[in-house]
Amino acid sequence: MGQKFYLETFGCQMNVVDSEQIAALLADLGFCAASSAEEADLIILNTCSIREKAERKVVGHLWRFKPLKEANPELVIAVGGCVAQQEGERLLQRLPHVDLVFGTHNIHRLPELLRRVRRQRERIAEVAFLDRETRLALFPERRSTGEVVRYVTVMQGCDNFCTYCVVPHVRGREISRPSGAVLAEVGRLVGSGVREVTLIGQNVNSYGGNTPGELSFAELLAAVHDIPALERVRFVTSHPKDISQRLIDCYATLPRLCRHIHLPLQSGSDRVLREMRRGYTAADYLDKVARLRSACPEIRFTSDIIVGFPGETEADFLDTLAVVQEVGYADIYTFLYSPRPGTQAPLRSDGLSPEVQQERFDRLLELQERIGPAIWRQDVGRTLPLLVEGESRQGGGQLFGRTTWGRIVNFAGGRELIGQVIPVTITASYRNSQLGEYWESNASVRCYGQG
Ligand code: SF4
Predict the structure, then answer these.
(1) Which residue ranges have their beta carbon within 6 Å of ligand 1?
(2) Which of 86, 155, 219, 330 is the least buried, fewest Cβ under 10 Å from its Cβ?
(3) Taken in order 400, 301, 50, 335, is the CA torsion positive or negative?
(4) Domains along the sequence of the chain with CATH
């Protein structure tokens, strides 16, 4: 019997991609995936430290594996990702049953590190950052997994150092992957059946900025868009200050670019935005929203918002509510501010009480509850193009796909539809998904919106 690994992933798309790389390295070592931690010879947690709560969750999770290690001393427990990068050796001290801590720049070394843990019974923390050239040379190539939609990494790291954010501290400085490598990878993925790619990075629209002679993000997006047989392209995450007019124009000129943009606002108060070091004002942000809407009237916006940044006043918070109202987000991801190690904001002494934070958080959610669901309900009765991704978690022989706005739609249909863009009539809209109906005759129905 071969060895089995159990891998759990927390956090953002970057961690999802890193986990794919980890799984591919383990497959090369002869491991296969276990369905539970109990049956694994190797447990890996790929972790997120963007919020204090996420980090606490990871540590709590790791304690749950202690009895498994006591029952089976040969079991190897490893921690990767942002908590590993941030905590390093301290994790080994806090968690005596953990064998290996590997940082965000050390995934490629996993085979060698595992060998050392097993053969030499070492406990290892490896969290050194790599230099730019080495990182560029080590950009992992994605392998085909038979899926219809895939993430493609175009850049890593961030140079912005927003005062609340741990990313530059745990992911390192910004590097852009050569455009030739990105295009070759998308071409290979499309050749293996992928129909939609999402270009990912911490700040994708600053792509190429610190690499003389490289394409801009708008140029890269257009080049990816033009790869034959690719049905759709998306990107995430964008920084509002780096949204160029050329990128805005892409929404008017690239029909296969999905009609959605995730544009983190963080705060609607100019004073708070300055303290966060975001590099834009609420007016700048709203101007970009207006220009995007002018280029593409059907575009939908989603956003991240932090509630209770130190020193946030009621007036600041009302400014945030005003922007949320004005933009009309389809969805927002709201976070209570939590201080992160190494960032500048925690050094301030004017933090808000948990009660004030929570009260504002609830008011923001209440406002969004009036805005978001009404936007999704507009789809009911429309026939929309859906890229069918696979079998639905709802079971019952249902399939699922996504609209151009990224909404999951469950519907009844045959497996031969997977990988196709088909017209589906939306019949109901729920909190996180929609229900649709597909008839073959729909194929001739004119769809609303883009593919
Ligand atoms: S742009 Fe700001 S919030 Fe986004 S990853 Fe960089 S530092 Fe963090």
Answers:
(1) 158, 160-162, 165, 167-168, 202-203, 239
(2) 219
(3) negative
(4) 4-128 (3.40.50.12160), 133-375 (3.80.30.20), 383-444 (2.40.50.140)
Two tokens at 387? 């890229």
Rounded-to-integer distance, Cα 191 and Cα 197, Å: 13
**Mean pLDDT to the nearest integer, 419-424:** 96
pLDDT, tens digit (0-9, with 9 covering 90-100), for 59-93: 899 999 999 999 999 999 999 999 999 999 999 99
Out of 155, 161, 164, 167, mutate this one to test ligand 1's pocket (max ligand atoms within 8 Å of CB): namely: 167
Query: How far is ligand 1, taken at its centre, from the CA of residue 357, in Å?
Result: 22
Measured CA to CA, the distance from residue 48 to residue 171 in angstroms comes to: 11
Q: Which atom of ligand 1 has the smallest separation from the CA of 171?
A: 5
Tell me how far apart the alpha carbons of residues 60 and 48 are, in angstroms, rounded to a whole number: 13
What distance in Å separates the CA atoms of residue 277 and residue 171, rounded to the nearest whole number?
19
The pLDDT tens digits of the residues spanning 238-267 come to 999 999 999 999 999 999 999 999 999 999
Ligand 1 midpoint to CA 206 (Å): 12
